[in-house]
Inverse folding.
């Protein structure tokens, strides 16, 4: 039994709602459920009575809540007696990610991290996600959020946090691209494509071209998925982009998703960091919240 699990248990014993506790304690519902299952195994008794509509404490759960409250109280008093600030990390964490990731995935990670380590200063740099691994290699970022590339340098490690679907995107309004899309069969070979300059996104679209046997009409090569979305929204062409980019784009109303004639593998999104630094206190603390 650890203090974090006890805190989760006490919150859940009050909320009696797995979803609310998961959200407010910054964990996934599956993580919360597994933690409670392990706790019940350690205690040797069912602590919660659950069905599809409600959660209630068992008699053992009520008894354990008293124990957990006392234990947490004693733990807090002990830490205060020893050193009021001994467990608080201090320092600076340099993060790098795309603008989209800063909206879609970073807030939840930082909420959990800053809840545990409020004295760590966060420095955020945004840019093309294709540069994320290089930023870590050059020690310009401690941690980068990036799609897993086909090959990862031995010096860099990757911890997955999500799967990100990709879709074909096209403009919604009347333009030359829309006229081509309105034909009985989409003429993929005549559509102008906006493609990434390099990185995992470039590899995905090149694989897609190869699967279709397509000699693609490349209109432009662009740095950054957000810029690609903007060019599609201007009617310059079509592309393949992570759906999360479109969902968070200010021009999403001008973009539609098309059905792909062949499957498009999703990105594995995760955090990159130098292997020889993962035991550093601040990095280790951040990786712990993933």
């Amino acid at each position: 039994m650890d203090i974090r699990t006890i805190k989760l248990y006490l919150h859940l014993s009050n909320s009696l709602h797995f979803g609310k506790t998961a959200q407010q304690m910054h964990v996934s519902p599956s993580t919360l459920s597994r933690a409670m299952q392990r706790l019940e195994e350690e205690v040797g008794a069912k602590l919660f009575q659950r069905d599809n509509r409600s959660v209630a404490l068992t008699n053992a759960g009520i008894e354990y809540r008293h124990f957990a409250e006392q234990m947490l109280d004693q733990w807090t008093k002990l830490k205060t007696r020893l050193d009021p600030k001994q467990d608080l990390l201090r320092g600076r964490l340099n993060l790098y990610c795309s603008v989209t990731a800063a909206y879609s995935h970073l807030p939840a990670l930082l909420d959990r991290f800053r809840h545990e380590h409020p004295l760590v200063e966060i420095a955020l740099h945004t840019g093309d996600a294709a540069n994320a691994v290089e930023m870590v290699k050059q020690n310009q970022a401690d941690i980068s959020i990036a799609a897993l590339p086909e090959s990862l340098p031995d010096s860099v490690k990757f911890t997955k946090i999500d799967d990100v679907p990709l879709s074909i995107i096209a403009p919604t309004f009347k333009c030359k691209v829309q006229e081509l899309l309105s034909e009985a069969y989409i003429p993929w070979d005549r559509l102008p494509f906006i493609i990434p300059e390099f990185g995992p996104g470039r590899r995905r679209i090149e694989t897609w071209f190869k699967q279709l046997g397509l000699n693609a009409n490349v209109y432009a090569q662009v740095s950054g998925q957000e810029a690609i979305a903007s060019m599609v929204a201007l009617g310059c062409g079509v592309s393949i982009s992570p759906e999360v980019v479109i969902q968070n784009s200010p021009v999403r109303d001008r973009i539609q998703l098309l059905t792909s004639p062949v499957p498009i593998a999703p990105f594995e999104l995760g955090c990159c960091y130098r292997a020889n630094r993962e035991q550093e206190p601040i990095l280790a603390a951040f990786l712990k919240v993933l």
